[in-house]
Design goal:
Elements (H helix, E strand, L loop, with lengths): L4 H20 L4 H10 L4 H25 L8 H21 L2 H21 L19 H16 L4 H12 L4 H25 L5 H21 L9 H17 L2
Helix pairs in contact: 1-2, 1-9, 2-3, 2-10, 3-8, 3-9, 4-6, 4-8, 5-10, 6-7, 6-8, 7-8
């Protein structure tokens, strides 16, 4: 991999944008995965290396939300169990999937999630004052979180939207607390997936940590705006950037 000044700036800049997008809604890996692949990383290594930035950005975001009193811990363990369990399965699937299968799946998943956001932009936001349900009161929430965990462990890109659908759509958390709890879940299954990837020697630490510098900075900035942020404004930008990144990754072979 080329560690020129331009390459480092590309990773940091892309990571910064991804950190903002992930904190406000989700889908930042739609930018970072193609960037890593364009710079020469195989799809499986890019998928694994990307988790370093995702994990550190998530820790920064959770800390910021927690300091603002926005992390709801009342249903913490029941929410984490299905997402982390799914993350173990997804991480194992991604780690052992052949590269010639993984790359098309990664690119297809990234574009599909972004198109879904544009075609059906139903990011659910319950009315103010709505009391959230507990996971035990909504069995379908457990299933939704489990599926989100599998997807997040496997590919990461766009998992934030699945978590928002599960947390806001089925459990009826308001969007701010949904984003905060979403990041807690992401830290959980990303940690498990990263352990699997490290065990299999698929993580390149230098590009991963360079990327993490950008994602952490982006998350710090985004937390300050999270309460009033409207993720709808990011959708067209995200789609165009994802399309360009995927095309560049495809022609880089």
């Amino acid at each position: 991999m080329d560690y020129s000044t331009l390459s480092i700036l590309l990773l940091v800049g892309t990571g910064f944008l991804a950190g903002i997008i992930n904190t406000l809604a989700g889908g930042g890996s739609n930018l970072t995965l193609p960037a890593l692949m364009v710079m020469g990383l195989p799809a499986d290594v890019a998928n694994a290396t990307n988790r370093v930035g995702v994990l550190l950005q998530g820790l920064v975001g959770v800390r910021g939300f927690h300091k603002a009193g926005r992390v709801d811990t009342s249903d913490f363990i029941p929410v984490m169990i299905p997402t982390v369990t799914g993350g173990i399965i997804g991480g194992a699937l991604a780690s052992y999937a052949p590269e010639y299968i993984l790359k098309p799946l990664l690119l297809t998943a990234m574009l599909s999630m972004t198109l879904l956001m544009l075609i059906k932009p139903s990011v659910i936001s319950p009315p103010p004052g709505t009391v959230p349900y507990k996971v035990k009161e909504r069995p379908r929430a457990w299933i939704a979180l489990f599926i989100a965990g599998i997807y997040g462990g496997f590919v990461q890109a766009g998992v934030g939207f699945l978590l928002i659908a599960a947390l806001a759509g089925t459990l009826r958390y308001d969007l701010v607390r949904t984003n905060a709890l979403k990041m807690v879940c992401a830290v959980g299954f990303t940690s498990i997936a990263l352990i699997v990837f490290i065990w299999n020697g698929q993580v390149l630490w230098i590009p991963g940590l360079i990327l993490a510098c950008g994602t952490m900075a982006g998350s710090m900035v985004a937390v300050r705006f999270a309460i009033n942020a409207n993720p709808k404004h990011l959708k067209w930008f995200l789609f165009v950037m994802t399309l360009c990144g995927c095309i560049a990754a495809l022609i880089s072979d």
